[in-house]
UniProtKB/TrEMBL annotation:
The keyword Transferase is annotated on this UniProt entry: yes
InterPro entries hit by this protein: ChyE-like, Class_I_gatase-like, GATASE
GO MF annotation, one: transferase activity
Pfam families named in the record: GATase
Protein name as catalogued: Glutamine amidotransferase
Residue ranges annotated for the Glutamine amidotransferase domain, each copy included: 50-193
Source organism of this protein record: Marisediminicola antarctica
CDD domains linked to this entry: GATase1_1
Keywords for this protein: Glutamine amidotransferase, Transferase
SUPFAM superfamilies assigned to the protein according to its UniProt record, in alphabetical order: Class I glutamine amidotransferase-like
Length: 244
C-alpha cells in the first residue's frame, strides 16, 4: 500500500520517537508504511500527495495562535509549509488527521478562531460524540462517550464555517471536527496511551503545561486511568484510507 505521512514538529527525540511509534502501532502500520518528516529540524521536501495514502499532523510545543512576533523562525517556516500543504489537502479533500497542534493549524487555515479560551490541563477528559460524530465513518467506530488524554494551551473557540462538529467536551467544546469528507482534526490525542503521556509529562516538565513540582503527582494520577477508545480512531483512519 502507499504509505501514510506523519508530519512531526517535536524537537525532543524521546517525545518525537514515542509519537511516531504510537501512531504507527495504533494504525497497525509497518515502519515503511508510516513515513515521518521532522519539520522542526529540516524543511518539508517537495512531495506529491498522490504518492501517499494520507497525512497525519501530530502534537507540538508550538501554538498556532501565538502572536507572530513571538514565533521562532522555525515555527514560522513550519506553519508556512503546512499551510501550503493544507491548501492542497482541503481543495482536493485528501485524507488528513491533525491531532492537537493539527486542529490549531486546520482551524486557523479555515478561518476559525484559535485562542486560549478552552485550554485544558494535562490528563484525561470526557468526550462526547455529536450526532454528526456518531454518523461519521471514523468517529462512529468509537463509543458515544469516552475518555482521552489532552494537554493544550490553545483550542478552537469558534468553529470554521465549513466545519462539521464531531466531538465535544465540557471543558473544551470543540474536541473534533471535519472539513469536507476526509479532512479531520482532533483536540485530544488519539495516539496517546498511559505510557505515552507519562513520557511526554517527563519530557515537557518545564514547558508550562503544569507546575514542574507537580510532575510526580500528575504521573501517579494518570497511571490510574484506563484509556482504550481513542487509538481506534487511528485504526479506522488507516483502514478507510489505505490505498493499495
Amino acid at each position: 500500500m502507499k504509505p501514510f505521512v506523519l508530519l512531526a514538529t517535536r524537537a525532543e527525540d524521546e517525545a518525537a520517537d514515542g509519537e511516531y511509534e504510537a501512531f504507527r502501532e495504533a494504525g497497525g502500520l509497518r515502519p515503511n508504511e508510516l513515513v515521518r518528516f521532522r519539520l522542526e529540524s529540516e524543511p518539508l521536501p517537495a512531495i506529491d500527495p498522490d504518492d501517499y495514502s494520507g497525512f497525519i499532523v501530530g502534537g507540538s510545543p508550538f501554538n498556532a495562535s501565538d502572536p507572530v512576533e513571538t514565533k521562532s523562525e522555525t515555527q514560522i517556516r513550519v506553519e508556512r509549509e503546512l499551510g501550503a500543504l493544507l491548501d492542497v489537502v482541503v481543495e482536493r479533500d485528501i485524507p488528513f488527521l491533525g491531532a492537537c497542534y493539527g486542529i490549531g493549524l486546520l482551524g486557523t487555515h479555515q478561518y476559525g478562531v484559535i485562542d486560549d479560551t478552552w485550554a485544558e490541563p494535562v490528563g484525561p477528559t470526557r468526550i462526547s460524540l455529536t450526532p454528526d460524530g456518531l454518523a461519521d465513518p471514523l468517529f462512529g467506530t468509537l463509543d458515544e462517550t469516552f475518555d482521552a488524554f489532552v494537554g493544550h494551551k490553545e483550542a478552537c473557540a469558534v468553529l470554521p464555517s465549513r466545519a462539521v462538529l464531531l466531538a465535544s467536551g465540557a471543558s473544551c467544546p470543540v474536541q473534533a471536527f471535519r472539513i469536507g469528507r476526509n479532512v479531520y482534526a482532533t483536540q485530544f490525542h488519539p495516539e496517546l496511551t498511559v505510557a505515552g503521556i507519562i513520557t511526554r509529562i517527563r519530557v515537557y516538565r518545564h514547558h508550562g503545561y503544569f507546575e514542574p513540582d507537580a510532575m510526580d503527582e500528575l504521573i501517579t494520577a494518570v497511571e490510574q486511568v484506563a484509556i482504550s477508545q481513542p487509538t481506534r480512531l487511528i485504526a479506522a483512519f488507516v483502514d478507510r484510507y489505505a490505498r493499495r
